[in-house]
Structures are given as C-alpha cells and as structure tokens.
Amino acid sequence: MVKFFNIKNKSGMDISDTEHLFHDLGLFAQKKLGFNKPPALNLMSDGKNAMKPLGKTAYYDPQGMSVTIYTDGRHTKDVLRSLAHELVHHTQNENGMLNDSGYHGEGYAQKNKNLRQSEKEAYLDGNMCFRDWEDQLKQEKPTIYNEWRINNMSTKDWKNKELMENLNSKFGFKMNLKALNENKQETVLEEEDKKPDEDGDGVPDYADEKPGEDDNQESDEDSKEKMDESRLYKIIKQEVLKQLRKK
Ligand SMILES: [Zn+2]
After folding, report:
1. Cα-flanking dihedrals φ and ψ of residue 8, to 5°?
2. Are the CB atoms for 204 and 195 separated by under 8 Å?
3. Is residue 109 part of a domain?
4. What is the CATH number of the domain that holds 117?
5. Rounded CA gap, 136 and 63, in Å?
6. Is residue 86 a part of any domain in this protein?
7. Which of 42, 43, 223, 233 could form a disulfide with 11 if both were Cys (CB 3.0 to 4.6 A apart)?
C-alpha cells in the first residue's frame, strides 16, 4: 500500500480494510487539486459531538496544516468525502488563498465573504474531486469496488483478488485463482514443503495430532478462510517459483 498520508487514527474506527482508500484518494486529489505536500490526517472520535445531528464532521488547521475528521457512526464514503473537502482548504492554504482573516465564529460561511468563497470552492471542487475519484476507481476495478457485493464474494476472496491483481501488475505474474475454488486442490508441493508438514494442515508433523488429516478442521467459516489463505500462499509461492525458473 502506498502511504500518502501520515494517518493518526485516534477514532477507534478499524481502518485496516479501508486505509488504502484514504491514501488513494489523497494521491488522486493531489494531482487534481495541485497541492504540494500532503497534510497530516487525524481521525478522531467525539462522543458528545456524534450525538448532535448537526455536529462537526471535519476541519482544516491552516497553521498546523492538518485535516481532522470525526468518524463516529459515519460511513467510510462520507468520511472520505469530508477528506476531499478539507483537501481543497489545504490547497487554498498552500496557495495563500485561504483568507482566514476576519470573522470566524458561528455562521462564518454567511458572514465572512472571503470564507464564504473558500467554502463554495471546497464544496464544489471537493465533491467533484471525490466523484471523479470514485468513478475512475469503479471503472478501473469494477469487480472489487462495485460488484463484489452483488457477486457475493467474501471479504477474504475480495482481498485475495486484489492481491492477485497487484502481483499481476507489479511483477507480471499470472495467477490461477481457479485452484482456490476446486474441491480437490491437488497442488503439487515442493519437496521442502512436504517434509515439515506432510498433510498440509499448517501443523508441523512433530506436533501433528491427526497425521494425514487437518488438525484445525472446524466447520465454521473462519477456519475455512484460514485454510484458504494458507493454500493461497502456497499457490502464490509455487507460481512465483515456477515463473522465476522460466525467466
Ligand atoms: Zn469547508
């Protein structure tokens, strides 16, 4: 993952699945809006604020050059839209166009002419920047960002697919994901893979309670996903080795 922002996540929101979207949007916005340096990005939680229907959602600090977003109870897409808005203010600040003199209190967007102009621009450019980013992402990776829910793909499969696409584009490796879906996946193991864990259940032979069987056999989705994952890594390893030998 290319880390565009230095994210300080004090919000308690789990962003392990969505962090790449923040960085991707940041990179896109930089090209589109033309700011130089990424601002610091703080994700915050404020319980009291979250209770208010019109509570604050985000702000830009021109001195500290940081964007702060309140994330409580918000959809990721909404949080990202806030980010795009604040990045316009960051651009204005870098260009000396964020006129932060004059009235700053309640109703500044109506009472302070300069800030009203900055705000207009942030709503228009921020939302359009977000929209353009979203659309190009969906066109680029329709399965991952658009249709994966429709296709009933599990999050794990979705991640795996993304990993495959990255490997593909970075190293030119062609992966065969079909192997994952076959019931009898007789993947030919390398000799050194076979020895320490003969039955391939992830438990080394010296600790194996059920030789020839999967010690971790459980019927729940979780264990199935774990198995899928370890099998996936084996498949990747084999593919990479195979293709390296060819080169
Ligand atoms: Zn604003």
Report:
1. -105, 105
2. no
3. yes
4. 1.10.10
5. 33
6. yes
7. 43
Q: How far is the CA of 44 from the centre of ligand 1 (A)?
A: 17
Contacts with 232 (C-beta within 8 Å, 6 or more apart), sequence order: 160, 180
Q: How far apart are CA 120 and CA 177, in angstroms?
A: 48
| Locus of tokens 């993947």 | 187
What's the mean per-residue pLDDT of the chain?
79
- Name which residue leads in pLDDT, 206 or 118: 118
Q: Are 238 and 190 in contact (CB under 8 A)?
A: yes
Q: Provide the number of structural domains found in the chain.
A: 1
Report pLDDT digits (tens) over 80-106: 999 999 999 999 999 998 866 667 777
Question: Contact, 41 vs 22, CB < 8 A?
Answer: yes
Amino acid at 90: H
Tens of pLDDT along 180-230? 554 444 444 444 444 566 666 666 666 666 666 666 555 566 666 666 777
Q: Which amino acid type is present at position 109?
A: A
Rounded to the nearest angstrom, the distance between the alpha carbon of 120 and the centre of ligand 1 is: 8
Residue 129 lies in a domain: yes
Ligand 1 geometric centre to CA of 12 (Å): 24
Is 228 inside any structural domain?
no
d(CA 117, ligand 1 centre) in Å: 10
Which residue range forms the structural domain that includes residue 32?
Answer: 7-141
Query: Measuring CA to CA, which residue among 136, 33, 153 is closest to residue 85?
Result: 33
